[in-house]
Structure formats: C-alpha cells, structure tokens
C-alpha cells in the first residue's frame, strides 16, 4: 500500500497533555518522525500549531477521547484538515500501548489513509447539539424529581398519583402546595383546585389527600417542588436559545416535521445530531448504521447469527424512539401499519426500533431531495407486507422441493 500524505501528525490526547508525532518526508521513502509533548493550555496549543506549520503538516489525526479533543479542535479548525477517529475502532487494532507509541501509530495510519474519520458537523450544528443534549438531560432530571416527589407523597400516605394521570399537572401541584400549609383540605377547597376532568373526582381526591404529612415530609416536598420550578425555568431558557439557533434551519426543520410523529422539538434534536448536509453519508443505510438503529451483521460459514443493533448515537436513538412511539399511534398511516405488522411477531421494543429505522431513512430522503414526506397510507403498507409474506412462503415451499403454481383467486371463483 502506498502512502498518500507527505506530512501529517498523529495525536494522543489526554486531559492535561497531548503527545504529537509528525510523520514527514517523500512518499517514496520511509517517513521521518518528530515527537513532542505539549500541555493542553491554550497558549501551548498555539505553540503546537506553529510547530506543525513548521513541518508543513496538512492533516491531523486524533482519537475522539471524551471532550478532551475539543480544545485542540477549536485551535486547529480552519488551519488543518482534522481526522477524528472513533476510539472504539482504533482499540480493535492489536498494538503495544504507550502514549508515544499511540501517537506514532495514528500518524502512520493517517499517512497511508487508513485512519477512519468520524462525522464532525459545522460549528452552528455543534452548538445546537450542545443545547439539545443539555435540554434532554434537564428533562431527565425533571423526571427524576417528579419520581422523588411521588415517593415522598406515597411515604406520607398521600395517594394522589393513584387518581391523577400527571403528578406534575396544574391541579396536582396546586393541591400539594396547599398541603404544605395545612394538614387537611376540605371538599370545597379540593373542588376549587381541581381543573377539567378532575372536577368529577372530588370525592376520590378527598380520600387520596387524606394522609399523614409530617414536617419532614413537607421539607422534602418543598425542596423537590423548588427543584422542579428551577428546572422548568432552565428548560424554558434553553428552548428560547434553541429557537434562535434554529432560524437558519427552518426549511430543514419543516421538511422533517412533515413526517408523522416528529414535533418541533424532535426536529431540532434530530438536526442537531445528523446536520443538514446529507452528503456526509453515502446513503440512508450508512446513516442508519451510524445511528445504530439498523440490524447488525453477524454471519459466519453462511449462517446468520445475532441481528442485534450496534452501538450508535444514543441521543439520536432516544429521540427517534420517542418519535416512533408517537408515529405508531397515528391511525391509518403507513407507520401505524408498519408498526402493527411487526409488533405481533417481534414485540413492542423491536417494532419501535424497526420503525425508528424506517423514519430515519425517510428523514434522510426528505433532507436529500428537499421534498416533504408523502404518506401512502395503511392500505398500501399492508398490501406490501402481504406480498412480502407471499414471496417468503413461496421460497420456503420451493426450498422444501415443492413446485408452486400461482393461480388468480378471481379465476377460481368464476369457475
């Protein structure tokens, strides 16, 4: 194999230091190696940039180690071509292990064009990604606080969660705040606090709110409710910032929202992970593999083994799973029929992953073509599924030695 880069650098990145190896020299000769160690402070990284330019380095390669690659990327972006390799793939290559040997090995792989590159979106998308991932974490924290709130209520004999569908609803929170001030709520007070359909459950609410609240319980309830209010304000701030960042991507957002099950929030989260330029992925199959929502390939001696999905982008997979669950509920849609055809045979979890896979391929197509999604309906999806079953049955019969003759049912009925 011939080398393709006459001057490149491999980096082994750590929190406090970065080991750098420059491989340079004519392509027809063995390369010369220059190795140095730099601190990851900004001033030292500027010195590293100057040292790389001294040897006419054009391309840098490094592992995507946590967040530690980002300070180096911030300094080197725009000055060099940066190849960010998946650390999991590099670990699969047998080698001896020291920091210096690691950076030298990366430089050698990069010189021969063998370093696998990872997808790095533009700065605007990276900033949008940070906001959406932070929002997802805050929503998870809010869910945890709601669960803690329910736990305290249960331990104090308050069975509110057995009556209301959402413990964080307006009526529920108003009743809990009232219980912080007094031991028992009257039927009239509960009737005033109840909203909507809960007005029909006043008698049941009166029983559910008859508990054994102590000062200890009130202290914990007050703390959890303050945390919920704080998290709600933080999420509202992030939503405002996301909305501002999404202004340049309104066209792509509208295209994705044409797909059933994808809301404005989900569209923003999906674009933050995959970007808007689909040329980064050769086709929808590569995008699905990168996201980790397509079946895995494990075949040996002509036998297919596990089809378990591979590791992928967990944030994207979570968003797609939520969107798939929403899409599966849209009656008389293609997605609903697709989900129902699989859930009977494979169960809910596998059906959701399959539907998420289908939705991601549709997302790729609408972004690639710029054309909104057109739902063909449940009837056509069911017809396709029936034809697939027919082909599968015919193959099984022919494999067993039978000769299959296809006969139109309308001709049999006429006879």
Describe this structure in words.
The protein has 415 residues and is of the alpha/beta class. It is 56% helix and 9% strand. The protein contains 17 helices and 7 strands. The chain has helices spanning 42-54, 69-76, 87-91, 99-111, 123-155, 170-179, 187-193, 202-208, 215-245, 250-257, 264-274, 284-291, 314-327, 334-346, 348-369, 378-399, 409-414; strands at residues 7-13, 17-24, 32-39, 59-63, 81-85, 299-300, 303-304. It has a 5-stranded mixed β-sheet with strand order 3-2-1-4-5. α11 (264-274) runs antiparallel to α13 (314-327), α13 packs across α15 (348-369) and α14 (334-346) runs parallel beside α16.
In short:
By secondary structure, the chain is of the alpha/beta class. It is 56% helix and 9% strand.
Question: What keywords describe this structure?
Answer:
two-stranded antiparallel sheet, 17 helices
Specify the oligomeric state: single chain
Number of strands: 7
Overall mean pLDDT: 87
Q: What percentage of amino acids are in beta strands?
A: 5-15%
Low-confidence stretches are 411-415
Radius of gyration: 29 Å
Overall spatial form: globular
- How do the SSEs run, as a string of H and E? EEEHEHEHHHHHHHHHHEEHHHHH
> What's the helical proportion of residues?
55-70%
Which class do the helix and strand fractions yield?
alpha/beta
């Amino acid at each position: 194999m011939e080398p393709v880069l006459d001057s490149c650098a491999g980096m082994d990145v750590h929190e406090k230091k970065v080991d750098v190896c420059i491989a340079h020299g004519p392509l027809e000769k063995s390369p010369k190696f220059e190795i140095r160690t730099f601190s990851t402070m900004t001033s030292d990284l500027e010195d590293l940039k100057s040292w790389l330019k001294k040897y006419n380095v054009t391309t840098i390669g490094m592992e995507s180690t946590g967040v530690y690659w980002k300070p180096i990327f911030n300094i080197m972006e725009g000055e060099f071509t940066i190849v960010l390799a998946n650390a999991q793939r590099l670990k699969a290559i047998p080698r001896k292990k020291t920091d210096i040997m690691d950076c030298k090995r990366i430089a050698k792989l990069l010189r021969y064009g063998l370093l696998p590159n990872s997808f790095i979106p533009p700065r605007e998308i990276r900033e949008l990604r940070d906001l959406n991932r932070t929002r997802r974490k805050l929503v998870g924290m809010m869910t945890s606080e709601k669960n803690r709130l329910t736990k305290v209520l249960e331990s104090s004999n308050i069975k509110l969660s057995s009556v209301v569908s959402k413990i964080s609803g307006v009526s529920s929170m108003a009743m809990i705040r009232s219980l912080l001030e007094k031991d028992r709520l009257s039927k009239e007070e509960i009737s005033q606090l109840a909203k909507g359909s809960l007005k029909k459950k006043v008698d049941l609410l009166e029983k559910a709110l008859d508990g054994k609240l102590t000062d200890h319980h009130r202290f914990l309830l007050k703390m959890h409710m303050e945390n919920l209010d704080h998290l709600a304000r933080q999420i509202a701030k992030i939503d405002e910032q996301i909305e501002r960042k999404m202004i340049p991507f309104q066209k792509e957002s509208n295209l994705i929202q044409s797909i059933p099950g994808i809301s404005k929030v989900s569209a923003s989260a999906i674009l933050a992970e995959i970007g808007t330029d689909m040329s980064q992925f050769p086709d929808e199959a590569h995008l699905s593999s990168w996201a980790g929502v397509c079946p895995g390939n494990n075949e040996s001696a002509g036998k297919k083994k596990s089809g378990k999905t591979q590791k992928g982008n967990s944030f994207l997979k979570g968003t797609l799973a939520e969107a798939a669950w929403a899409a599966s509920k849209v009656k008389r849609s293609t997605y609903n029929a697709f989900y129902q055809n699989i859930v009977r045979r494979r169960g809910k979890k596998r059906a959701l992953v399959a539907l998420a896979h289908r939705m991601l391929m549709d997302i790729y197509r609408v972004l690639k073509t710029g054309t909104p999604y057109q739902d063909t309906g449940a009837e056509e999806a069911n017809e396709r599924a029936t034809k697939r079953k027919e082909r599968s049955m015919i193959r099984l019969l022919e494999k067993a030695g039978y000769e299959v003759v296809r006969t139109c049912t309308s001709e049999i009925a006429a006879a």
